[in-house]
Amino acid sequence: MIRVLLADDEHLIRGALASLLALEDDITVVAEAGSGDEALAMARAHRPDVAVLDMRMPGRDGVSVAALLRDEVPECASMIVTSHAGAGALKQALAAGVRGFVPKTVSARRLAEIIRTVHTDGRYVDHELAADAIAAGESPLTPREAEMLSLAEDGAPVAEIASRAALSPGTVRNYLSAAAAKVGAENRHVAARIARERGWL
């Protein structure tokens, strides 16, 4: 039996997926998690063969969980299921040792096949996600510009971003203006959205 950990913060999706995978003769879901930290704890406790991780979860995201699992539970192969992918996200996932990168639109039967592939040391990267990632190209943002855009994502004012980043408001404005210009956005909010969609944050 292939022992699987499912991690997704959307309870309905996670439960439905667990039920569908339970219909497979050679797959059993041994643990479920609703956050990155919970996924880590479950993986340490249950030592699954494959971790199916949502890209975006509260706390740690799927890629950072995969990176930690590679070191802490090396017998567990990780795969990312996502509805948001870009060049940065795919590259980060592969660098973290992720063996599967799959869209959330995949069927349960196809997901089971991919779990089997990943379990036998194979790799699977969805063709459309790979093409989108390549089309998005390399990030033009410096690490500091990406950090400022991340802090601006939730609509925080410049003063708050400056406080959180321990920078002056003027310096933050400069970083945000440069980032917006590089991605061709009219303001920091649009720039953050574009950068997130392209996997640069």
UniProtKB/TrEMBL annotation:
Top-level taxon: Bacteria
Occurrences of domain Response regulatory (ranges): 3-119
Boundaries of every HTH luxR-type domain copy: 134-199
UniProt KW DNA-binding keyword: yes
Entry-linked Pfam families: GerE, Response_reg
Residue list for modification 4-aspartylphosphate: 54
Protein name: DNA-binding response regulator
Annotated keywords: DNA-binding, Phosphoprotein
Organism, as annotated: Streptomyces violaceusniger
GO molecular function, one term: DNA binding
Transcription regulation keyword on record: no
Annotated GO biological process: phosphorelay signal transduction system; regulation of DNA-templated transcription
